[in-house]
Amino acid sequence: MSDLISLTNNDEMHYATYSGEKKTLVPGYWKYQDRKSSEDNVKDNQSDINRLKNLLGASKEIKSTTELLDEVIKQSVQRITDKVNKYNPEK
Question: Quick one: which of 27, 42, 46, 68 is 20 to 30 A from 36 by CA?
Fold first, then answer.
């Protein structure tokens, strides 16, 4: 039995920080910091607010190359184990 296993692994960070009162924070776009504009876009629906809360609580640390390699090794071992267990030499 032979096979080729090709795996890649990566990690990324996507987060937001805010030092003010998070209860009153809503996502959106404001053209100016100190005055209103017709281009301002407040996204105060629950879905957008939840996405922002998730960003505020997201991990701010990226995985090390060792952690990424360990994950790939574990995935490889699992695939190899599955192939060996399913192998039927009579076929």
Answer: 46
Mean pLDDT of 37-47: 95
Rounded to an integer, what distance in angstroms lies between the CA atom of residue 29 and that of residue 44?
A: 11
Give Cα separations from 19 to 24, 41, 53 (angstroms).
12, 22, 13
The answer to pTM > 0.85 is no
Distance CA 8, CA 76 (A): 11
* β-sheet bridge partners, residue 41: 29
Which residue carries 């053209």 as its tokens?
31
Residue 91 — pLDDT band, cuts 50, 70, 90? confident
The rounded distance, in Å, linking the Cα atoms of 45 and 71 is 37
Task: Please state the separation of Cα 70 from the chain's center in Å.
Answer: 18
The pLDDT of residue 6 is above 80: yes
